[in-house]
Specification:
By secondary structure, the protein is an alpha+beta fold. 35% of the residues lie in helices and 21% in strands. A hairpin with a 2-residue loop joins strand 8 and strand 9. Helix 1 crosses helix 10. The termini are far apart.
């Protein structure tokens, strides 16, 4: 009787078809690409979040900052990919959701008048950005919503890459964070708003910007987290959970090849093998 040989699992391999980016001093991916590649000077500035014009007027008035940044980067990434937004499954990931709305609800509960507006309550759920995305894009595909504290970007990336491989279909990943007002800010001191979106596909195309892989059994590492050479960008990376994506984006902008280690679990990093597609 012979023992059946084990079949090695293939690596999770995805191709980057589109990128959306919005953060302090970064208005979109195209404007930020030179900064991330190290060929342009980074100019720090407060994040300017555009109005979500794809939403109907009523929903636009109700949308908070977290929804606006999620829609802005999602729309940019999908437009770059050339794919139909309404057909893309999605993964939304945030360390704490709508921080500003959370502050307003806490302020109301701490006041003599504890009535909370229906709009505040409606926007308090963690999947609010995903719901507004489906309204603005007409998306009917499945949507997952995650939260993993400071490891939320890595958790979202792992989920999105697994879905791409399992379903063999492109997936939209959107990660975002907003800053808390005081007094919550002193406990959770995120300095500003940041959002990133990625369209990940199972096969390479003429639009592909990079290839990313996670090797089975070796996608977690206890090596130090990847840092960004630019000190100002490194400060963003270390202080805003969604900005943990910056080492990956730098590798795409610089067309570099190798391994990128992203903050994930305490003492364990997500090890992503990166290579350009140019």
């Amino acid at each position: 009787m012979t023992q059946a040989s084990a079949v090695a699992a293939p690596p999770l391999t995805v191709f980057i078809e589109g990128i959306g980016l919005l953060g302090p001093g970064m208005s979109d991916w195209m404007q930020s690409r030179g900064v991330l590649a190290g060929s342009a000077t980074y100019q720090p500035a407060r994040c300017v979040v555009p109005l979500p014009m794809a939403l109907p007027a009523a929903e636009r008035r109700r949308a908070g900052t977290v929804v606006k940044v999620a829609l802005a980067v999602g729309q940019e990434a999908v437009a770059m990919s050339g794919l139909a937004a309404n057909a893309l499954p999605s993964v939304f990931s945030s360390s704490s959701g709508d921080a500003i709305n959370c502050h307003e609800i806490c302020s109301a509960l701490a006041s003599s008048d504890r009535l909370i507006s229906p709009t505040r309550f409606h926007n308090s759920v963690h999947n609010a950005a995903s719901g507004y995305w489906s309204i603005s894009s007409g998306a009917m595909a499945s949507s997952s919503v995650l939260c993993a504290h400071d490891g939320s970007f890595a958790a979202g990336l792992l989920e999105a890459m697994a879905q791409v491989m399992l379903e063999q279909t492109p997936v939209l990943l959107v990660a975002y964070d907003t800053d808390y007002p005081e007094p919550l800010r002193s406990v959770r001191p995120l300095p500003d708003t940041f959002g990133v979106a990625l369209v990940l596909a199972p096969r390479r195309s003429q639009r592909s910007l990079a290839q990313w892989q996670l090797a089975p059994g070796a996608y977690l590492s206890d090596a130090p987290t990847q840092r960004v050479e630019n000190e100002a960008l490194e400060l963003l990376r270390s202080r805003i959970p969604a900005a943990r994506c910056l080492p990956l984006l730098c590798s795409v902008a610089a067309q570099s090849q190798g391994e990128v280690l992203l903050d994930y679990l305490p003492g364990r990093q997500l090890a992503v093998q990166v290579a350009p597609c140019f």
